[in-house]
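Researcher: I'm preparing a figure for a lab meeting and need a structural model of a single chain. I don't have an experimental structure, so a prediction will have to do for now. The sequence is pasted below. Please return the structure as tokens so I can convert it later.
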Amino acid sequence: MDTPLTRLVGVRHPLVQTGMGWVAGPRLVSAVANAGALGILASATMSPQRLRSAVREVAARTDAPFGVNLRADAGDAGERVRIIVEEGVRVASFALAPRRELIDRLKDAGVVVIPSVGARRHAEKVAGWGADAVLVQGAEGGGHTGQVATTVLLPQVVDAVDIPVVAAGGFHDGRGLAAALAYGAAGIAMGTRFLLTSDSTVPDAVKARYLEAAVTDVTVTTAVDGLPHRMLRSELVDSLERSGRTTALLRAVRHAAAFRRLAGLSWPRMVRDGLAMRHGKDLTWSQVLLAATTPMLLKASMVDGRTDTGVMASGQVAGVIGDLPCCAELVDRIMAEAAETLDRLTRGRTVG
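Model: Understood. Here is the structure written out token by token.
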């Protein structure tokens, strides 16, 4: 399927696997790339040295294009951009709108820049700064999310910018791809659907929790870091929502210390990152610490398999997913279903 996205990044299919912390590692990203879609390596949970190693591992596993996701507000974002350029990575994506100078550095090196946004005005801003495409996530998406549904937000953004738009939030099959194309998108991005594949390194017990979940088991809470965060309801989420301020602060400090050791960060650097997160937001310091160390809560589930002590970011689509195909099977299935759906529509027949 030929779309502005496939032409821009050089993949066969207009599908993107999002950069999920602790999930989107070399094995998953290379499997997605080899299936003909765009895999995005998650770097926020990696040190710069580990990022370089992971990029090289993906490159050794596939000749297809892939990308790296960056945290735009990270203190070492510039260093990570340098690694992307030096290692010849095709695509840089951002969880937040990046600074204009980062976009300029990447574009000067021939890297395709695709920021993620959750509002029309943010899409207009990054398009004006020279972004090559934009990924727009509606409220159905997992992790930090907004309040506007994809079906409302997507057409707003498509009408507002003249660069390719990738739709995210609520997609898991070929019918969704066809719908996104009808709205004017150039492709779709999926996180939870790629998490729930046999190529994903997430422990089986955690995948089972996702597969067991109903749509109503996927909740939005501000208890983790003060921002709306879509995840599976769990023992920890219930505990955080019941916790008082002192308990929340102690938990935050404990996780901050663990994350500092794991990521090789200094306390001053973590404070700077926390201040960047707090800017413009009414967050307590315990929430700032939790925001900076949410990766540890994700690691507990996504790596250690501890669903009782970790959080499980999830899109609402977890409630309608019931299998664990490999990435190649999933991509082929989505593309076949999209082609069938579009064929039925153009022939004027009802989709059954």
